[in-house]
Amino acid sequence: LDLSNCSLHSVPPELAEATAAIVLDLTENPLTTLPDGSFLGFIQLQSLAVPLPLECPGGNDAWQNVTVDRSSRLCHRQRNPCNSSVELAWPCPENSVCSPDGPGLIQCLCDSPFHGYKCLREGTFPMLLFGGILGTATVSLSLLLWGTQRRKAKTP
Q1: Residues whose CB is less than 8 angstroms from the CB of residue 67 and which lie 6 or more positions away in sequence, other chains included
Q2: What are the transmembrane regions (predicted)?
Q3: Omega within 30 of 0 (cis) for the link into 57
Q4: CA distances from 76 to 10, 55, 61, 113, 145 (A)
Q5: Which domain holds residue 28?
Q6: Residue at 96 is within a domain
Q7: CA R_g for the chain
Q8: pLDDT tens readout for residues 109-136
Q9: Is residue 139 included in any domain, yes or no?
């Protein structure tokens, strides 16, 4: 994806839709910062070129090779933060697995059959119980309103 020399003053929000990009060029743009989360989900990104004043997203430790030339910084081969020897600042909770989610970013995915906040709930969502209660409440409320409000309806 070549976005070089597009007069971008900030990262366009539409960039979030290009998570399948492997090569991305943002050089020759008057970018001043790369907001945190700009590259969330860019797990396939292998080569990123940014203007020289900017750092590689996730820092130099998120990339295997960072080179600087005349006017740009080239970030090559994204590292998997889950496999690094450096201890993670936010380790994943029990019953979950670390998964990369972009340069220097991780997400914790719950192991099956766990789900919910911090992967503490076991089993599946009780769809039948939820649907039954919701359906019963809806029908009951509808009948109550129909019974109390039908006398106010004008008949032809």
Answers
A1: 73, 74, 76
A2: 125-146
A3: no
A4: 22, 13, 11, 37, 64
A5: 13-79
A6: no
A7: 25
A8: 999 888 888 888 888 778 999 999 999 9
A9: no
